[in-house]
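**Sequence with structure:**
===
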Amino acid sequence: MDVRYCFQRYEKKYMLDPGQMETLLSGMEGRIRPDAFGRYTVCNIYYDTQDLRLIRTSLKRPVYKEKLRMRSYGVPGDRDQVFVELKKKYDGIVYKRRTAMAAADAVSYIHDGAVPEHEDQICREIGWSLHSYRLGPKVFIAYDRTAFTGRTDPELRITFDAGLRWRDTALDLRAGDSGAPLLPPERILMEIKLPGAAPVWLARLLSENGIFPASFSQYGTCYREHLMHQIPLMQDGEGGLGCA
């Protein structure tokens, strides 16, 4: 589990079935190892405008986009740590800035406007986005993650996410990780995260098995399949920022 607070990297997504996942894991044997936490559940709440302008704009594939979410690893209690993340993408590079706080404090901050006890530059950037776009909680998305790092390259991270699920009620990370399926149970989302080009061995393994990057967004898929009917049709030219 990456607990850094500021970093940039490339992220590539791939949609797999269980057989492809097993083939890749076999081909990666000796080159990767489970990360410090191995398997865990990732819980997210995504924030957007009343008319979901951020995700609608993001799906148009602008050069620059951003999103705001609250994330926990497992279901937190009031005093357990969660992350409030401002994630930006420009010209294919992902930039993430996040701050950690207790779940109860994060809800007071993001939902109720309370000033954090230790307000830093990242908090100020998050606050600017919240107030400029008038963001509110829109959807909860969770998945069960198995994560690996490179044995000789710790900057390489490979994650496999299964059991993707969503809900648009009880938008609080403390309310549990249940939700309706977002993907069929046999679909697995793999992400490769690294600061630069993929290692030759990894690029060859993917090519030999006919596995290529896929355009997929958890929030974008949820919007298209479940949320877009909740807002009126908008003008095609309406602007905004977003991030899938």
About this structure: Helices lie at 18-27, 53-58, 103-110, 121-133, 200-208, 218-227. The chain has six helices and nine strands. The radius of gyration is 18 Å. Residues 6-230 form a domain with the mRNA Triphosphatase Cet1; Chain A fold (CATH 3.20.100.30).
